[in-house]
């Protein structure tokens, strides 16, 4: 698929399929798809940081929390117990993304001075700081019980169940409307990331990942690129967090913990480091698997309802994609995206090496 026209046609067809799906899916699959698309946006940002640049971050959940709670605080009005700015919801959504980017920019000087495991441990500290703030800054976050999320409203159109909206005899509720919003965010997120990775910035990021000293000798402004990609990754996480808040309709501090950061690391490893397509594939795998086990767990051995003594769907999902991470590291270093590329290359070589049929020989130019 090296021809740009073929890639463009494939991207257009994929987008069209995503736009048509809400008219046929039930609420379970709509919600699962929303989680997958929001996870894909966040995973793309982490893949730019960790996969392309080599900066290990275990605090990605912190920036998702900034995006989620930033949107709620900016969009909600003030009350007797909870504070808020009451901004228009589109402005609040953009403000949440900017807040996440600012948080990433404030941490980027620390990230620029640390490498490898030390950076991972330092970024992990963000999770504990974030959890402390989420549970104790009750006027902003709502504390342990969280806060209700105001529905997004753009030019009078509400991403909520009301007012009623029917298109092609299909009622479009909050899930369907948020699905279209997720597609509108995911498509440019993938396009921007692919442009960065395929262009000069991507080559510079890969050089920094492979050999930072060599990159500096070649004239690459290492500190500037590292700070910029950390801010960009945080903004991706902020957008994913705000979208998750709209999908959940209530923010809860427990969700934005260490396990969420580990999930995102699993996404980019399973999908393939350093590619936007790999981030999307890994996000779909990791986010959809628990939902499937929850829905169909009664028909599967060893999977039981939470608290019943067996392995819960969430635990089973972590065991499975933990095993997938090990399998990828040992046998598929390129992840799902790399496996697809190898299969496509092998198929192309087989087609090129097979003998031509008589009809194909007659069609060859003289």
Low-confidence stretches: none
Overall mean pLDDT score? 87
User: Strand order of the main beta sheet, please?
Assistant: 1-6
Number of helices: 15
Radius of gyration: 22 Å
Helix content: over 70%
Order of helices and strands: HHHHHHEEEEEHHHHEHHHHH
Which assembly state applies to the chains in this document? single chain
Could you describe the 3D structure shown?
α2 (27-52) packs parallel to α7 (174-198). With 366 residues, the protein is mainly α. Helices cover 70% and strands 3% of the residues. β2 (153-154) and β3 form a beta hairpin. It has a domain at 25-255. The protein is built from 15 helices and six strands. 41% of the residues are buried. One of its GO terms (cellular component) is plasma membrane. This is Branched-chain amino acid transport system permease protein. Pfam families: BPD_transp_2 (PF02653). One of its GO terms (molecular function) is branched-chain amino acid transmembrane transporter activity.
